[in-house]
UniProtKB/TrEMBL annotation:
The gene is cheB. This is Protein-glutamate methylesterase/protein-glutamine glutaminase. The lineage of its organism: Bacteria, Pseudomonadati, Myxococcota, Myxococcia, Myxococcales. PROSITE patterns: CHEB, RESPONSE_REGULATORY. Involved in chemotaxis. Part of a chemotaxis signal transduction system that modulates chemotaxis in response to various stimuli. Catalyzes the demethylation of specific methylglutamate residues introduced into the chemoreceptors (methyl-accepting chemotaxis proteins or MCP) by CheR. Also mediates the irreversible deamidation of specific glutamine residues to glutamic acid. The modification 4-aspartylphosphate is found at residue 60. Keywords: Chemotaxis, Cytoplasm, Hydrolase, Phosphoprotein.
Length: 356
């Protein structure tokens, strides 16, 4: 590579020789990347991860002997690496396993192409190579750091809705947060989780298994309800407008779904009765929307560096003073519960028209 920079060393894992050939060839076309090995079983992937110490592993999930999540868990314990799941979106069983893989330590998901020839494949290959290069910049975390500490005080807070933005590392973080919230939470939660198109339904089903709240894909024109968790449909941005009505629009570029658009809409609609948070993720999406909530007098929080997979979005939110300080992931469910409590709240201005 030019400039003396070492190439990104990639291990390709797929039980299909045809797919493994295609992935290897497409990655090798990028001068920033070197394919250093291939594995066609989960156990072979663990062995090669230990021997080769690759920077990034592209991982299929449904394989002989050791499946993807089990292989990823073993890799993260024995030879930690950045794992990018490459999975067939059309396979429903695959979708379930994808999020098990993320819980085991995978960083990101990318769907397999529908065809493995022609321009569509080359386009997909460029996307895959770009994802590998982005993943190579993420610090390797051998285990998730759990920090238990009392949540910061939420003085005089009472919100009528809670919005959350997340990206890389977000699904497992959301799983931890939502699993610790009560089924009678008195407000709705709306979430913008940046994810490859096609994976949202699987994520919603997976999260539904870990929380007592009802997790759904939002529908245009419906009113949000307490005790429900809403995600936008694939390829759409979600906003909440007057009286808590869902609006969904096709994304026009940039992060999808947009955390900034979602959180800014809560600030507009709910004012000081809005709550929002930014979790782990690359880039800066969500930070400016969170600042809008802060300026409106609402409750805001940002995940701290120690518990983030990628301290990108929360770092920008803290730099903008959209939240006071970073908080551990383990404290966020308590912050949400405290912010949503009901009862007389002195010196709080009324919510927007129609919001009780």
């Amino acid at each position: 590579m030019s400039g003396g920079k070492e190439p990104i060393r990639v291990l390709v894992v797929d039980d299909s020789p045809t797919m493994a050939d295609a992935v290897s060839a497409l990655l090798t076309d990028d001068p920033r990347i070197e394919v250093v090995g291939r594995a066609n079983t989960g156990s072979r992937a663990v062995t090669l991860a230990r021997l080769l110490r690759p920077d990034v592993i592209t991982m299929d999930l449904l394989m002989p002997d050791l499946d993807g999540p089990a292989a990823i868990a073993a890799i993260m314990a024995e030879a930690p690496a950045r794992v990018l799941v490459v999975s067939a979106v059309a396979d429903q069983r695959n979708l379930e396993v994808c999020f098990q893989a993320m819980s085991a330590g995978a960083l990101e998901l990318i769907g397999k192409p529908s065809v493995i020839s022609g321009e569509e494949l080359r386009r997909w290959g460029r996307q895959l190579a770009e994802s590998v290069c982005l993943m190579a910049e993420v610090p390797v975390i051998s285990r998730r750091l759990r920090v238990s500490s009392p949540p910061p005080p939420v003085s005089g807070a009472r919100v009528d809705i809670m919005g959350i933005a997340a990206s890389t590392g977000g699904p497992p973080a959301l799983s931890e947060v939502l699993s610790r919230l009560p089924p009678d939470l008195p407000v709705p939660i709306v979430i913008a989780q940046l994810i490859t198109e096609g994976f949202t339904p699987g994520m919603v089903r997976w999260l539904s298994q870990v929380t007592s709240l009802k997790v759904v894909i939002a529908r245009e024109g419906e009113r949000v309800e307490a005790g429900k968790v809403y995600f936008p449909a694939d390829g759409h941005d979600l906003t909440i407008e007057g009286n808590g009505v869902v609006r969904m629009t096709r994304t026009r570029g940039g992060p999808c779904p947009s955390g900034d658009l979602l959180l800014s809409s809560l600030a507009r609609t709910y004012g000081s009765r809005a709550g929002g948070g930014v979790l782990t993720g690359m880039g800066e999406d969500g930070a400016r929307g969170l600042l809008d909530i802060r300026k409106a007098g609402g409750v805001t929080f940002a995940q701290d560096e120690a518990t983030c997979v990628v301290f990108g979005m929360p770092r920008v939110a803290l730099e903008l003073k959209a939240a006071d300080r970073g908080v551990p992931l383990s404290s966020i469910p308590d912050i949400i519960r405290m912010s949503c409590r009901r009862g007389p709240m002195p010196n709080r201005p009324p919510g927007p028209e129609g919001v009780v």
